[in-house]
Amino acid sequence: MDNTNYTIKSIPKEDRPQEKLLKYGASTLSNSELIAIILRTGTKEENVIMLSQRILKEDEKGLRNIAEGTLEKFKSYKGINDVKAAKLMAVAELSKRMSTLKIEKVKISSPGDAAAIMMEEMRYYQKEHFKIILLDTKNNIKKISEISVGSLNSSIVHPREVFHQAVANLASSIILVHNHPSGECEPSHEDIVLTNRLDECGKILGIKVLDHIIIGDGVFFSFKEEGLL
């Protein structure tokens, strides 16, 4: 008979996630330990750390299982009820919102700067989102605006919506950004045609299109770097 004690109390006090965080700081904890603090309790079969590890290990996706999780998906794990699922969804949403705080007074000096700002939010989208980064005369970010949300592999973008935002916010230049839910970042023929169209519209209005960044899963494509803009 297996007499293993699966409760969190079976772990030495100094090794329990909350105690470790308070003593050594959050940066010393593993992903599963941080999630364990959010969930607080496990099940009769496994403690909360084991439950957290099980969520992270599914399909070897790690934190993507938190970022992409839905109410139904979280509740499919034994030990996750409505309350725990809501906590996980709240953590995922807060992390996305906090990532946008970094855009305040940030200067874009390279395609990598723009990609880094947008990557962690846009790499997890299940549909194609098209956004623009609005810049002032010194390439400081004024605002990031979402223009459209499309299907799994396409979004509908009209120059009218793109440049309405640019004009309304007195932008000197813009950077186009959209994601590929497939995780790949190579531009399609439609992406190239749209970029050229928006570039021409920008020239007419005196609002320069500096780049078009395509966000994949941890990778990006820059039209400027590749000589397409």
Task: Characterise the protein shown here.
The protein is of the alpha+beta class and 229 residues long. It has helices at 17-24, 31-39, 48-57, 64-67, 71-75, 82-100, 111-122, 159-168, 189-205; strands spanning 129-135, 141-149, 173-179, 208-215, 220-222. Strands 2-1-3-4-5 form a 5-stranded mixed beta sheet, with helices on both faces. Strand 3, helix 9 (189-205) and strand 4 form a beta-alpha-beta unit. Helix 2 crosses helix 3 (48-57). The model is unreliable at 1-5 (pLDDT under 50).
- List the total number of helices: 9
Give the number of domains.
Answer: 2
CATH fold assignment of the largest domain = Cytidine Deaminase, domain 2
Elements, N to C (H/E):
HHHHHHHEEHEHEE
CATH superfamily of the largest domain: Cytidine Deaminase, domain 2
Rg, alpha carbons: 22 Å
Strands of the biggest beta sheet: in what spatial order?
2-1-3-4-5
Q: Strand fraction band?
A: 5-15%
Helix content: 40-55%
CATH class of the largest domain: Alpha Beta
Could you name the key traits of this structure?
Cytidine Deaminase, domain 2; 229 residues; alpha+beta; 9 helices; disordered N terminus; five-stranded mixed beta sheet
